[in-house]
Amino acid sequence: MPQKNFDEIRELDLFSKLKDESFSKLMRGAYFKQFPPQIELIDEGDSADFLHILTSGAVELFSRWENRETTLATVFPISTFILAATMTDLAYLMSARTLEKSQIILIPSEDVRAVFSEDRDFANAIVLELARCYRGVVRTTKNLKLRSASERLANHLLVLHKRMDRRNSLTLPYEKRRLASYLGMTAENLSRTFTLLAENGVEVHGKEVVISDLGKLEAFARPTSLIDG
Amino acid sequence: MPQKNFDEIRELDLFSKLKDESFSKLMRGAYFKQFPPQIELIDEGDSADFLHILTSGAVELFSRWENRETTLATVFPISTFILAATMTDLAYLMSARTLEKSQIILIPSEDVRAVFSEDRDFANAIVLELARCYRGVVRTTKNLKLRSASERLANHLLVLHKRMDRRNSLTLPYEKRRLASYLGMTAENLSRTFTLLAENGVEVHGKEVVISDLGKLEAFARPTSLIDG
DNA sequence: CGCGCTATTGATCGGGATCAAGGTAAGTGG
DNA sequence: CCACTTACCTTGATCCCGATCAATAGCGCG
After folding, report:
1. For chain A, what is the domain count?
2. pLDDT tens per residue across span B9-20
3. Which residues from chain B sit within 8 angstroms of residue A44, using beta carbons?
């Protein structure tokens, strides 16, 4: 594995305060793998043998039931995923597939749990990370249950806008149909909702989104830190 | 506080493996309070000063946005709630109200965090509990996004049935309108959905639900361990 | 180019919401 | 013990958001 990756991983909240010894213990047993796009990395229900860290590319977390499928999250570098299943040694609840060619580090779950009980700082970081994830899903649930599809889209655009350093022009980092699924709507409905938002300060051309009237969009979206973070 | 309560709390997964010393440290700073029904214990956005433990009564966790409100969970004794906010020292993301007269133990968040970093077993238990909560909300999200309202109701009845030792007759432990809100539907729609389920092995009289044909209900609900636990 | 995939647009359908009355059951007080 | 109240639930009528189905339009890429 390139040194560059090591350094980046080391800087993740999860590992930054880790003892060197613990960190190398984790890395010693780790696999560094490259995957092509559209590979199913994880099938929900599988036992959680590895903690995954995405170092380049993109990964979709999704779930299937009875011929239906929904996107639960999109993971971008550098970040870990499916920590909760790893810690509890239970089956994964989400499936994962690469969206692009991706580099992924696989750390055996037993190693994670071993270091967790040896290194207090790691335990601390894991708790914070799990709590953060938990709160993220709670926000998602509130978003789904309290808002209409167009309100969800409007607020999501505001979140992206904030994340992009508040530039009024941004590029959607995923296909629209995945965005639609993530927001709990169909691709068709997303399209129509975008045209609806044209009256509320949003212009769309392909994956480019221009927020031409932030005030209008905010008035429509009514964002709150208790949902949108 | 009655000794009986102490013992019951001690048996919670979160506290059972705790050193006596740690447990008393937590209890020393704790408040034991009684609340009448319909009292708002927590307003989302408040800072998370206390970990709450419900020892009798019932508490609803809910959220509001723009004049809409949704039930996120109902808590029954004996259990803790809002652990994640406590650990991260961030604002609560859910509001809470008593549904009945309730006894609640309030443990200052700083004490919880202090004991967490002193007592390895407690740290362990907290991680497991957080991961469990996280996975619970992931299931909720999948349920909301992958299933229709009637499928959610059918599966929820199966969950209650399982929880009630698989007796074919059970009593709904909450008002129907709260169940409706929890399942992400209106009270009216819940009513109609119950009549729909009459053709699928379910009889309802008030809060009494009789599963007259488990096979039929299961065929309709198609439960899966990856959503329904 | 032309093939294949994604996005848009249009027409229609349906699940679930909303609005508006009734019904039912459990208190409450005379 | 029974009228009256009140809260919850049900039922009916209608509406609308968003899904579905179908066709077309872009776009990226070999």
Report:
1. 2
2. 898 999 999 999
3. 226
